[in-house]
Amino acid sequence: MKLPDDAARTIADPRSYARWDELHETFARTRRDHPFARAELDDYPPFWVASKLADIREVASRNLEFLSGLGGLLTREQVAFQRATGAGQQFRSIVQMNEPDHRKYRGLTQSWFQLASLRRFESRIRALARRQVDRLAELGGACDFAREIASHYPLLVILLILGAPEADEPFLLRLTREFFGNVDEELSRGKARPSATEAIATQEAVVADARRYFEELSAARRREPSEDLASVVANAEVDGAPISAVDAMGYYITVAFAGHDTTSSSLSGALWALAERPDQLARVRADRSLVPTLVEEAVRWTSPIHQFVRVAARDAEVAGQEVRKDDWIVLAFPSGNRDEEAFDAPFEFRADRAPNRQIGFGFGAHMCLGVHLARMELGIFLEELLPRLESLELAGTPTRTVSNWVGGPKSVPIRARLR
Fold first, then answer.
1. Which of 72, 70, 17 is nearest to 303 (CA)?
2. Which site in 171, 379, 397, 419 is 20 to 30 Å from 54, CA atoms measured?
């Protein structure tokens, strides 16, 4: 089944993810008419699009047949540029790994990220959340919530668990924005709209800055290890040998960049949705036992991971279609999170939605390692905010990041009244 070119272009283009409503119109038509279909565009390698939740979950669960290694879609020009320059070789994250490496490297910190282990940070995370709510109050409740509150709080949590100083937060925040916003002219390092290859080159420069920072942190933790996550990574061993600098860097960047940006986006998405829906805000203010379901709905609604590409390790069948070895498959998470067959009224934001089979944290072997931390962070912030929040409304038009990989609300201007 061939995906129409206009739909394929929309799904591939990073700019489409800044036009959220239009994008979802395309996804809705794709789910209805071409739920698992092959796209053939001149400037992209051919790719399949899994747009329905069941198909996304199936491909993600068949991780020995459909391999990781790519993030969002790249153009032919970007793929050629990476091969010619060696771009993308500065780090290797568990997101990119396949078996047996994936299991071994994920296991280095899996117990560390279990909820029971994370509980030791709960009081300090709550203090960070309270600080940001206080800051919102100090601003008179009028601010760009995405830029001034939501972008800072999760990164401060990341610095806490890494054992890095809070003074480093502005530097890492800039790198995170430039890394995932490398094709967004407002966020990219060069600011002007970069070409396809310039976007890759600027991202490489960002990673080089991050590498120097984390190499220093790693060296310090090897000299004097402590109980923080940086010490675990710096002194980690696989098969009896220390992990490489490239693999250690993959851990640091995944935790610091993805662990921050996705949570920041979900928190911004929650406030954006509640500001537009006074009835939902009133419900969660009156019944704060709804916070856990509100968190899940915020992740579903925002879908901060836009897509991951899987590569077929061998010929296979998906949804009755023949997928050939080396074919690319795009897991379209925002589409899966609006699937009419999986969610009742998927285009409604419901703070009490249950059950909620959202796939915003991924699925299968590559499900987000920090899922418990993300849920804890989001829940704690909302528990601190809601008792003090008397009113909330948008004070302008929100905008979203230009990115077909990881992104979310870039600007969410609000007016709030707090106790």
1. 17
2. 379
Contact present, 35 and 319 (Cβ < 8 Å): yes
The verdict on pTM exceeding 0.90 is yes
Q: pLDDT by residue for the chain (419 residues), tens digit each? A: 899 999 999 999 999 999 999 999 999 999 999 999 999 999 999 999 999 999 999 999 999 999 998 788 999 998 888 888 887 788 888 988 999 999 999 999 988 999 999 999 999 999 999 999 999 999 999 999 999 999 999 999 999 999 999 999 999 999 888 888 778 788 777 766 778 788 888 888 888 999 999 999 999 999 999 999 999 999 999 999 999 999 999 999 888 887 888 999 999 999 999 999 999 999 999 999 999 999 999 999 999 999 999 999 999 999 999 999 999 999 999 999 999 999 999 999 999 999 999 999 999 999 998 999 999 999 999 999 999 999 999 999 999 999 999 999 999 999 999 98
DSSP string, 47-116: EEEE-SHHHHHHHHH-TTTEE----S---HHHHHHHHHHTTT-S---TTT--TTHHHHHHTTTTTTTSHH
What stretches of 243-325 adopt beta strand conformation (E)?
307-312, 316-318, 321-323
In this structure, the dihedral spanned by the alpha carbons of residues 389, 378, 264 and 279, taken in order and rounded to 10 degrees, is -40
* Residues 353, 357: Cα–Cα separation, whole Å: 10
User: What tokens were used for 108?
Assistant: 């280095």
Amino acid residing at 90: Q
Determine the Cα angle at 390 with ends 135 and 121, to 5°. 45
Residue 161: C-alpha distances to residues 119, 170, 254 (Å): 12, 17, 13
The tens digit of pLDDT for each residue in 112-125 reads 999 999 999 999 99
Question: DSSP code of 149?
Answer: I
Residue with tokens 């600080």: 131
Which amino acid is present at 146? Answer: A
pLDDT tens by residue, 275-302: 999 999 999 999 999 999 999 999 999 9
* Phi and psi torsions of 409, nearest 5°: -60, 130
Query: What are the tokens at 232?
Result: 């675990």
CB-based contact 270:284 (threshold 8 Å): no
**H helices, E strands: number in the chain:** 18, 14
Alpha helices in 13-52 (DSSP H): 20-33
What interhelical angle do 169-180 and 153-162 show, nearest 10?
110
End-to-end CA distance of the chain, in Å?
A: 56
